[in-house]
Design goal:
Layout: H1 2-13, H2 16-45, H3 55-70, H4 76-110, H5 116-155, H6 159-192, H7 197-206, H8 208-235, H9 239-272
Helix pairs in contact: 1-9, 2-9, 4-5, 4-9, 5-6, 6-7, 7-9, 8-9
């Protein structure tokens, strides 16, 4: 595992320009979504009772906000726009995956330069189909789990009982989502390495536990670094807090590419073995 993680680090360093480009892309999405949500929430919050609000005033505010959101057409254009943004993201993400994974494969095979644009041009179709299938398989259980979870929320008399009943559902769905994601990633790696989709899928299945362990280690490192940055940014103030907050996005982008690089190196190594 140490060798795979180290090789993933080397592959990530060779994609520094791409990491910076992805950082700018994610930063742009974050700013846009922040402004988008702010345009929805701010008009409602302006009517919040400002000076020493009573319980009655707060209840009136919540009732009015609920009426505006669910009984009028106020939120309808925002819902459609959010759906359009989600659809656009669903179209754009496979292109990024195909370019990055293809470039990682070329790095593994030839130690060559990056081939991001070539990968998008050659591999976007199979990667897109696999990615959409992954999203569908992850979302399907929600159709049955969401009503069950809502019933538990409405009928649980205490938080302890709510957690006891709800956590197994959430954990079960999370395990399913992680398994589907890793198997989908193996198929995408097969698609960018010459159409070996089913062979890489089989390698991921028979070597699933080491593949999962490798992924968990890098995910835990990513989470720990993000938590550390969050703590420092909350303790700081002013420009330093802003700098730390924005720096965390760059680090998370680096960690995402590092994780994909290590996962790719592991799958490609199994294929050679």
């Amino acid at each position: 595992m140490k060798t795979t993680i180290a090789q993933g680090w080397k592959m990530t360093r060779r994609h520094l320009t791409l990491v910076l480009a992805l950082f700018v892309y994610r930063l742009g999405w974050g700013i846009f979504l922040y402004r988008f949500i702010d345009d929805i929430i701010s008009p409602l919050l302006r009517r919040y009772p400002s000076s020493a609000p009573t319980d009655y005033a707060v209840q009136v505010f919540l009732t009015e906000a609920q009426f505006q959101l669910f009984k009028t057409n106020l939120i309808t254009p925002y819902v459609w726009m959010l759906a359009a943004l989600f659809a656009f993201r669903m179209l754009l993400t496979p292109f990024i995956h195909s370019g990055l994974l293809y470039s990682l494969h070329q790095q593994f095979e030839h130690s060559a330069n990056t081939h991001f644009r070539e990968g998008m041009r050659k591999c976007w179709k199979p990667v897109t189909l696999i990615y959409w299938l992954e999203m569908a398989l992850i979302a399907v259980p929600v159709w049955w789990l969401a009503p069950r979870a809502m019933q538990i929320i409405l009928t649980s008399p205490s938080f302890a009982q709510l957690a006891a009943k709800l956590l197994p559902i959430i954990l079960g769905w999370a395990v399913w989502a992680v398994a589907i994601h890793l198997l989908s990633l193996s198929m995408q790696l097969g698609a960018v390495s010459g159409g070996r989709i089913w062979s890489t899928l089989w390698q991921a299945i028979i070597k699933f536990l080491p593949f999962l362990l490798l992924s968990l280690v890098l995910w835990i490192i990513t989470f720990a670094i993000a938590a550390l940055f969050s703590v420092f940014s909350l303790l700081g103030a002013g420009f330093l807090a802003i700098l730390l907050h924005q720096g965390s996005h760059l680090i998370s982008t680096w960690m995402k590419v590092w994780t994909l690089s290590a996962q790719s190196h592991y799958i490609f190594s199994q294929g050679q073995g």
